[in-house]
Amino acid sequence: MDTILVIDDERNIRTLVSRVLAQDDVEVHTAGTGKEGLELAEELSPDVSLVDLRLPDMDGIQVVRELKAKHPDSAVIMITAFGHIESAVAAIKTGATDYLEKPFQHLEKLRISVSRALDEVKARREITRLTKREEGKYNTDQLIGESDSTRRLRDIIGQLARSEAHTILIHGESGTGKELVAKGLHYESARRNFPFMEVNCAAITETLFESELFGHEKGAFTDARATKKGLMELADRGTLFLDEVGEMAPNSQAKLLRCLQERMFKRVGGTRDIKVDVRVIAATNRSLETMVKEGKFREDLFYRLNVIPITIPPLRERTEDILPLARHFLSDRPVRARDGGTAPRIRLAGQRPRAQKPRRAHGDSVHKRVDRRPPPSAAVLTAHRGPADRGCRAHRAHAGGHRAVVHPEGHAAGEGQQERGREDPRHHPANPPKEAERSVVPSVCGPGHLLTTAPLAIGSGRLGISRIRAFRHAI
Description:
Elements: E1 3-7, H1 11-22, E2 27-31, H2 34-44, E3 48-52, H3 60-70, E4 75-80, H4 85-94, E5 98-101, H5 107-138, H6 148-162, E6 167-171, H7 178-187, E7 196-200, H8 206-214, E8 215-216, E9 228-229, H9 231-234, E10 239-243, H10 250-262, E11 264-265, E12 274-275, E13 279-284, H11 288-293, H12 299-305, E14 309-311, H13 322-332, E15 348-350, H14 374-383, E16 395-399, E17 402-406, E18 442-444, E19 450-452
Parallel strand pairs: 1-2, 1-3, 3-4, 4-5, 6-13, 6-14, 7-10, 10-13, 15-19
Antiparallel strand pairs: 8-9, 11-12, 16-17, 18-19
Helix pairs in contact: 2-3, 5-7, 6-7, 10-12
């Protein structure tokens, strides 16, 4: 229930306000002096406070100031029988959301003012909650990995986020997490409470780029029916993320260069310079230095963007991160059972300690993009297995370009274990499989358990952490 605090030296006013607001299902508390009101506020943490401008022991403006200092999320409404423009302006500057005159000729106006103040408080708290959730989602702790390069990347993000760096360039192949790093730089910085605007430079045509980035004035072109703020202006005091900046057209590059130099721009069709304080983070999966030599990217823009470069290594160069990422995605994506049961508990574990150590039989087989789709498919296979599967039936798996039938213990099927009535001679007990052949073969042992016997990153060129497709149901 919402809590309202009324601080007024007139008993009639306190009683009237309590009766009017009690109809709206709120809890009303009253105080006759400023000191008593501040003590009650410390105890109750009210959502909205109504404060009289003139109190017997304190000035109402001072009470408002102390309330806003100790309870910044709450709203304050100033009430007075001596309405003056100067006092109203002073109250608003101090932090009051509204200004009402006594006596209340229209009680409905009082209820509307309190209702608006409550809505404002709820909206502010919701924004704070969502902001904190985003901060937790994109802070450096969410960069999963145990490799030295990942640890260095987390340290670099923390240092740059706390700095005053205005331009950062992120290099990395597709899927290495450039957007995640950009959001980490934003939410770890002092700009976290201001917008994070992102634009995909490859998805915007040259004719629309200037309007999207800088905005336009009404009547600037045929369809400009109203004035529109651009992403650069909307990101003021926050961060602007330019993804795939290497795909920008030459004319757009020149316009962006001037904006980066001056931190000032004009809307399309406008004559007024708009100055912004924005951190620009650009990302590319192409070599801008090579593009400069080929004449496809402006050299001056490259040096303007490349003030502080960050390079994200692909996953194939940091194989220590494969298993931590697999564990994270498996635990992050529960799948509901089709029969309405609860989601299965999935474990990613090796039968032997050496199975947990990533080995690279084929260095290029480790994909650089980490996809979240495979873990749910693995969970589906483990979620719908019944009593008939308690014997841990062997499953097919693609490893090394051929089919193999594997036991939960990690050995290929021998006598009595056949696939469609046939037995693969390569996996006869007399011919134990090679390590590389069964390195990506997982097996399912009972409902809710996913057992891997070797690293998930070894196998044919089509297999890797982003394409764990070794889970084929035996027919």
